C-alpha cells in the first residue's frame, strides 16, 4: 500500500504545472546565486597579489556557500511542496477513504512522506549541472561536494517531515504552508538562539538541536555519528507526531 500511495502522490505532483513552476524558479534562483558567487570570487582574486591567492580558498568562498544558499532556499520551497499533502485530503474529505480502508496510518504517512522526498530529490537534481562547471578547477578535495548533497537531502527530509506535520494540523493549505515555514525557521535558527545565551549547557543543547550545525558538518565533510543520530531521531520523532495526530480522528 505504501507504494500505491507513493505513486499516486507522484502522479498528482508531476501532472501539476505547479511542480515545474517551482522547479524552474528554484533552478533559476540557484543558478543566479551560483554564477554571482563565481563572478564575485574571480573579481576578488584578481585584486589579491599573486603570492597571496592561495589563501583565498575557492571551496569556502564558492562551493560551501553554494550549498548554504540552497539550504536557505529549501526553507521557502518545502512548505509549498508539503502544504497539500494532508490538508487537501482533509478539505476534500478523501481522508475518510484511507481511514475506512485496510491502509494503516503508518502506510499512509510513509507513502505520502516518501513522495515528498522524491519531489525534493527532483528539485535538487536540477542543481547538479552547476558542480559540473567546476570540473576544470583543480580542487584539493571534492568529497565535500558529495557529502554536501547528502546533507541537503537530509535537511530537506527534516523540513519535509515538519511540513507534513503542519499539513496534518489543518485543512487550509495556506495556513499549512505558513505553519511549516515557522516550524522550519524555528529549527533553522536554533544556532542563533544558542549564541544568544550565556549558559554554556543550554547553549550546547540548543546548538545540538540546531539543524544547521549538523548540516555544516556534512558540507565540510566532517561527519560524526552524532550527526547521523540527530537526523534519524528528528525524522522518526516528527513522523510519530504525525501518527499521533492522524490517530485523533475527532479533531478533523
User: In this structure, how is the largest beta sheet organized?
Assistant: none
What would you call the shape?
globular
Count of domain modules: 1
- Number of helices in the DSSP assignment: 13
SSE-based structural type = mainly alpha
Average pLDDT number: 84
SSE string: HHHHHHHHHHHHH
Pick out the low-confidence regions. none
Separation of the first and last Cα atoms: 23 Å
Helix proportion of residues, in percent?
over 70%
Please sum up the structure shown.
Helix content is 77%, strand content 0%.
Q: Can you walk through the features of this model?
A:
The protein is an all-alpha fold. It has one domain (2-16, 66-120, 140-251). It is 77% helix and 0% strand. It is built from 13 helices and no strands. The protein has helices spanning 2-14, 17-47, 58-82, 87-92, 95-99, 105-125, 129-132, 143-167, 173-188, 190-196, 200-209, 211-219, 225-247. α3 (58-82) runs parallel beside α8, α8 crosses α9 (173-188) and α8 runs antiparallel to α12. It is globular and about 70 Å long. The two termini are 23 Å apart.
Features:
252 residues; mainly alpha
Amino acid at each position: 500500500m505504501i507504494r500505491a500511495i507513493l505513486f499516486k502522490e507522484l502522479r498528482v505532483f508531476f501532472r501539476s504545472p505547479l511542480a515545474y513552476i517551482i522547479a524552474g524558479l528554484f533552478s533559476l534562483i540557484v543558478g543566479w546565486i551560483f554564477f554571482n558567487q563565481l563572478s564575485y570570487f574571480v573579481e576578488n582574486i584578481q585584486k589579491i597579489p599573486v603570492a597571496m591567492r592561495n589563501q583565498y580558498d575557492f571551496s569556502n568562498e564558492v562551493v560551501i556557500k553554494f550549498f548554504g544558499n540552497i539550504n536557505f532556499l529549501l526553507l521557502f520551497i518545502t512548505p509549498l511542496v508539503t502544504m497539500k499533502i494532508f490538508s487537501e485530503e482533509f478539505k476534500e474529505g478523501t481522508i475518510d477513504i484511507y481511514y475506512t480502508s485496510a491502509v494503516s496510518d503508518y502506510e499512509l504517512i510513509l507513502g505520502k512522506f516518501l513522495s515528498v522526498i522524491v519531489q525534493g530529490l527532483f528539485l535538487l537534481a536540477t542543481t547538479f549541472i552547476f558542480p559540473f562547471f567546476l570540473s576544470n578547477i583543480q580542487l584539493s578535495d571534492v568529497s565535500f561536494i558529495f557529502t554536501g548533497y547528502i546533507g541537503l537531502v537530509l535537511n530537506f527530509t527534516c523540513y519535509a517531515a515538519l511540513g507534513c506535520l503542519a499539513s496534518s494540523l489543518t485543512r487550509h493549505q495556506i495556513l499549512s504552508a505558513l505553519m511549516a515555514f515557522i516550524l522550519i525557521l524555528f529549527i533553522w535558527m536554533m544556532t542563533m538562539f544558542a549564541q544568544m545565551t550565556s549558559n554554556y549547557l543550554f547553549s550546547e543543547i540548543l546548538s545540538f538541536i540546531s539543524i544547521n550545525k549538523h548540516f555544516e558538518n556534512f558540507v565540510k565533510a566532517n561527519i560524526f555519528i552524532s550527526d547521523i543520530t540527530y537526523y534519524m531521531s528528528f525524522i522518526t520523532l516528527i513522523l510519530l507526531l504525525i501518527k499521533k495526530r492522524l490517530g485523533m480522528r475527532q479533531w478533523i
